[in-house]
Amino acid sequence: MRHLAPNPTHKLYSNSGNRALLELVDSSALAILDVGCGTGDNAALLKKRNPATKVWGISGSEAEARIARERLDSCWIADLESGLPEDALAHRYDTVLFSHVLEHLRDPAEIVRQASALMLDGGSCIVAVPNVLAWAQRAKFVVGRFEYAPSGVMDDTHLRFFTYDTAARYLLAKAPGLRLTDRRVTGSVPLWLLRRYVLSRSISGWLDDAGCRLLPNLFGAEVLLKAIKRGGEPGIS
Question: pTM of the predicted model, to two decimals?
């Protein structure tokens, strides 16, 4: 899971991309803005899927941007607390991605609003944020542990915290016309030694899927949202 601060001068975020998030991207989307693009890992996967895809990115780090520009069509540097960069405003997008960036902002709903204005009608806003009430974090809260860390749910650059129940309500509140069409989680059920020594991978996977489907706010570590721009007032379910 990737986390990106709005101006992470001390961190460089690189991984294999957020595949669960990218599964929500329509195959017809060919103009994509990745807000908080890290080193361009999502762009690499998108272009592998369809080389005709154009991906623009926004990073808060020159070090990240230098790497990301090898994978993206362009990468702009900006402090998102001040809004989207001017260069980004000159384009229109089929899809806007927010993969683990909104939790780092003071007013994440405002950035979603700004991005939604750049989306084509029928375009998608796709979001990934951590679930602060996933079972592992709940266990820490129960024993009195509320401590920041270098990464994870309690990353020391996180300013906002979300759950499966609240993420759409808070993040889409200022974005006229965004209609929530998909809400899901990724995560796992705490099987511990059963997963390692007893259960097969397929059975463990089935239990994880069932747990995340039935109790998403308990077993979901990551909340994924997809909202479609249709015009009118925001619709949140």
Answer: 0.91
